[in-house]
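Board notes (copied after class):
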Amino acid sequence: MISFSCDYLTGACPEILNALNKANSMIHSPYGDDDFSKESQQLILKACGANNGRVWFLSGGTQSNMTFIKACLRPHEGVISTNEAHIATHETGAIESTGHKVLTLPSGTGENAGKITAYQIEQAVIAHMEDSSFEHIVKPKMVYISQPTEIGTIYTPDEIVAIANVCKKYSLYFYVDGARLACAYAHILDFYKTNLFKLLAQSCDAFTIGGSKCGALFGEALVVLNDDINNEFKYIVKQGGALMSKGFIIGVQYSELFKNDLYLNIGKHSNNMAMQIKQIFKDFNFLSNSYTNQQFPIIPLNLYKHLKDNFDFSLWQKLPNDMVTVRFVTSFITKQAHVDALAKAVEDFNNKAN
């Protein structure tokens, strides 16, 4: 069975496993004060072109989102996101469990699929400010986006800057969830000739550099550029059970990811495999125009059943007229032979149908 089900079903890339093996018998300072974590911080901040800020290493995406959002917001404040955002749909109410409402806005269509716009955000803030009973309503104080989005689309550099400008205008925190940031980083560098790390460092209060879905065994790097938050952030990390005693394990991984362009190359490879899958289904419609490692073709139900015999992938949604939206996900582990086998299976189905 060839798997295109997800990008976190295997272990780590060989470079990271080798680095972990070398570090395994060494003695390390606890709680992220080890040499590897310090080196990783320096490598990441250098990649971001940041003269300030701090990198915090946490075990997973939901934990990172909850910890940062909780640290920023007061009890009456909430976070704006798209209605498809991970914090709104796939984190079991983690943000709400801290007492903060997720204020969802409808995601767009076409090239804006999965995204919210600066205009939507501004209108939501203005609506709150102009409401005569504003004190009865949760106050928008943060904007959350995913880069790439949950359906693989990309916020362009101009869109990120536009959202950042609205956030600055209305004193909102701007936070970017980068669970699959390697894929967005690779695409934006190639297509827009823009360094996404530097752009986010200039635009956001914080963003995550995902590891779990981008070649690491586990772990997320939370880059916090706002030092007002950094000053007492360690208390929040510890209080939430997120301060790892063996923090070096994540430090080692990010130290390796940020050497020899490994993080970038993982994103490039994943995107390349995904673009080939996109080409395989070129005769079908797609849920979104994704340039990253998640592809969502809309295919006949009988093709779905045919492919499920030999491939593991996700049924995303059932549609009328015996059509379904499916999801194929690529990663560092995806091989050319896997994609070629998928192409052959679709070709065989089409030949039989004709």
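Comment from the instructor: The radius of gyration is 21 Å. The first strand starts at residue 2 and ends at 3.
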